[in-house]
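cron nightly-structures :: item 1 of 1
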Amino acid sequence: MKKPPNFKLSALSIAMFSASLLLATPTVMAAEEVDSAQDVERIAVTGSRIARAELVGASPVTVIDRAQIDASGAIDIASLLQEIPAVNGASQSTNRAFSGGTATVALRGLSSTNTLVLVNGRRLSTVNPSGTVDLNNIPFGAIERVEVLQDGASAVYGSDAIAGVVNIIMKSDYDGFEMQIEQGQSAEGDADRTIVDMTFGASFDKGNFIVSANRTNKKTYIMSTRKVTADTNRTNYGGVDLSDPIPDHSAVVTHPDGGQLVIKPGSDRINGWNDLDDFDWGNPDHTQNYWDYMTAGVDTQRDSIWTSGNYELSDSITGYYEFNYTHAENQGKNQIQSPLDVWGEGVAVSANNPYNPFGEDVRVGRAMWEITPTGKRHAVNNVTNDRRYTLGLNGELGSWDWDVSYTSEKFDSTNLGIELSASRLAAAAGDEAACAARNDGCVSIDLFGRRGTVTAEMADYVSEEGVIINEGSMNTWMLNTSGAVFALPAGEVFMAFGAEMREEMASTNVSRIYEAGDTVFGGGAADTMPPEPREVKEVYAEAIVPVITDVFLIDALEFDFAIRYSDYSDFGDTTNPKVGMKWRPTADVLVRGSWSEGFRAPGLSQLYGGQTTGYNTGAQDPCRGDDWASFPGCAQQNPTELPGAWSRSGGEPTLQPETAESTTLGFVWTPEFLAGFSVTVDYFNIKKDNLIFQPSTNAVLEDVASAGGVYDPAQVERNPDGTIKVVRATLSNVGSQNIEGMDYSIGYTLPSTEMGDFKLFWGASQLKEYSTNGEDKVGLYYAESGTWTEWRHSMRASWALNDMSVSYNSNYTGSVTQEENSWAIPEGSEHLKELDGYIVHNIQAAYNIDTLDTKVSVGIENFTDQEPQVALADYRNGFDGFGSQNSIGRYYYLRVNMQF
């Protein structure tokens, strides 16, 4: 019976991959077994649409099988992928403060929009605000293995595959019933997790099916329960006080003559100036340690189901289906909304406000604890649904394989929050008569007492429900066919052809308070609705051509060619080629390399995201100074004395794709005299142009004033007197990047002994250059955007004897230097910018109880209790919140797997 192309891997692949180690080594070792076999089945490996006997391609591929997944202790695909050294830069995670409840992967330090994510070789939808795949929607318990292509692959897969491809292969061929239960808890007694996986499968004469269901319930923890984030006052580490200048118990009042004041100890409320003391930033009673109630991630409850099956319709045609549904609820707490006064953002309280004890206008800042029932702000209160199904047929036509499929995916997410309305707060703090005249339920607000003096009626008026609803859909038709076309002296030439058509649509609907930019601290959001669905039509061709074999210094030489043409309804077309080479000087040495062009289409939210306008107090106009005439872009002097300008940000319908050129070159050594041993070394280089990013208001002003030519002069609109009317700082195609580095791995599966079976592996990735517009970021940490460390290592070792096994792994992230927000590091303390390398050690022991068909595993994650490195400039997490670090500490788990 013929199965779908992605399913035909099962028996052979499991045998080969289970004998291998993490990363590139499994592919190499498995390939050696295949080369020596006779009449083996051809299978497709990520990076090519052509099924073949040898699993080592012209590009490096990392393979993680189910046994390695279980031994890792990871509970979701995002945390598993973080262990791969090639994952560098900024990834999103649910294990960090300010998490939005999503998780992504970023290869080569590029943003996650440059890493294509597939399930069984078919792309997942990215029609959401971030333009990325949320990895949490993939049921972790149903994964059979993960293949990571560490090379550009736009010629094979299309858009987004600039940094590489993550192809998640799901379980397909299973007979029986299996249940797995996992319970975990941190050494601090929190961060509980409970995971239940159930899998049922059956085979019959003409087909099979599998159903896998999962429930994950994961709790987070309060940030101040960890040493690294015990207090936002970082002076004990040599930094500055990052606390909010609003005490938990009192308002901060600005005196008309200047200076801030807070309520005296022992006073219940402010009745006059005598009830106030001078504000002292060094007094912990005058500031707010927001890590006391912020969570270090989100509480998550996720339910998912995966089912797939196939049925033989005839001797040469098989039908198949896949279906996945995931429902997730995420909730996390953030800083209390506080109109701040020490930073100049207090509320203007009228002399005619009935609660104003001073008889004159004053400005007041206060933590608004009362606007939510618990007094804690739910920054994330998100519910997400993702539904995806595939229907397909595959078969044989002569010597050719073919596959045709239709995939439909729909998602929706709703985020609910209680927001503080800046306009209503201003009205409630203003003149009492004017408040009453609004006829919208306005009631004057009391900001002069301790927590609790804002009544429920007052809180209801100044607060408003904020809702953001995101919806998206993607429908895809795919046709792929491959086979041998003719034979050369060196072997058969294989080719693949295919076509893909897909339709994408996305929308974002926001409630009034966001659309009006009416939240405290300003900012806003706008509805996003493309004028029509995006239509994409693509065709591709691929060929593997063996050139020479069995001559001196050429045991085998072959070339891979691929080309893809893509036509987008909303920005045009593009053609992208790829050339790969495999040369074996001898049977145990492989030299490989590739060159390709790639592209990333602008996301729907980037093209059609609503534009918002806000006042940027930090904007500096070069045309304002006395030397304005030296700037060719200044027609006249701007007479405005106060800094600032209105700035427009958001989507830009004129965006064009990012383009890229990728090169890899490396070798694989698998010596015949040392079976099970392998070494790989690979060089990579990615050059990107036409980058899509959001420029700063000042960058646009400076370039237009100096006639730099980067931005259109029309992006700065001025009034007749030379003052700035508005600066259009929307998304732009500007700039270039160059990424260069090396990947290394050494693996050894030792011969079996009476003492058991041993496996060892070490892998590393070295980022030598990561430059944007000539500025190299390697070795630097940016609190707002992530870390680009030079070195990342992964080490694994395992031992198995009879029914017992022990596995160990460690993950190392190299040292970096803090560069952004240097104000957080006092003068003379430059050494505090240096963050040492970070390494985590994990261990797991397992025992098979054969009589019960049960496997019991116990594990300790971070068993040395390694703390993250303190990042003084990071007011969110207190450490590098974008990389592999977290503050959870030592973690214990118990897993029981039962088969029936």
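cron nightly-structures :: done
Residues 1-40 have pLDDT under 50 and may be disordered.
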